[in-house]
Amino acid sequence: MSNIVQRDPFAIDDMLDDLFKGYFVRPMRMSGEQSEMQMIKMDVKESDKEYTVHAELPGVNKGDIHVTIEGNSVAISAEVKKATEQKEGDKVLRKERYYGKVYRSFALGQEVDESGAHAKFDNGVLELVLPKKAVSAARKLAIE
Fold first, then answer.
1. In contact, 35 and 75? CB cutoff 8 Å
2. Does residue 75 carry a pLDDT above 90?
3. What burial class does residue 57 get, using C-beta atoms within 10 Å of its C-beta: 0-12 exposed, 13-18 middle, 19+ buried?
4. For residue 124, is it within any domain?
5. Residue 49 domain-assigned?
6. Which of 82, 92, 86, 39 is nearest to 60 (CA)?
7. Closest Cα partner for 59 from 14, 117, 126, 130?
8. CA 77, CA 69: separation in Å to the nearest integer?
């Protein structure tokens, strides 16, 4: 004996509804809440002798920034610490803390001379001046 099952095509518990439930929903943010630093924004300029990098790191202390150079790879990492507190008299109404780490690495077209590189941090902008390593001319090897 066969069972006949009747399905409503507009039912809420449809299999496809269950499959995609919550898929198109964006995470909500409280009104007035600012997004925290998620990615380091950068500008990279190249001249004949050097690369100049400007990286935005607002709200970061100079001592919390680390730059590493290895060949033509450059990595910038920073620890972000942010705390806000709203008081009304002696009562604390809201206190929020954000601690996190941001990291960005990139490769340049030519190797960097680490000994001549220097960095400066001013008003939330990190400036890196990365001189290009001198390219040695190809040497012809004599065969004996």
1. no
2. yes
3. buried
4. yes
5. yes
6. 82
7. 126
8. 12
pLDDT tens-digit series, residues 21-54: 555 555 555 544 445 556 889 999 999 999 999 9
> Domain for residue 3, yes or no?
no
Residue 112, judged by CB atoms within 10 A of its CB (0-12, 13-18, 19+), counts as buried
Task: Give the structural domain span for 87.
Answer: 38-131
CATH number of 124's domain: 2.60.40.790
Domains held by the chain: number? 1
The residues that bridge with 76 in the sheet, in sequence order, are 67, 104
Confidence grade of residue 11 (pLDDT, cut at 50, 70, 90): low
Length of the chain: 144
**Which residues have a Cβ under 8 Å from the Cβ of 96 and sit 6 or more positions away?**
83, 84, 85
pLDDT of residue 3: 64
Residue 44 included in any domain: yes
Q: What are the CA-CA distances from residue 124 to residues 3, 43, 57, 89, 117 (Å)?
A: 70, 14, 5, 32, 20
Q: What is the pTM of this model?
A: 0.63
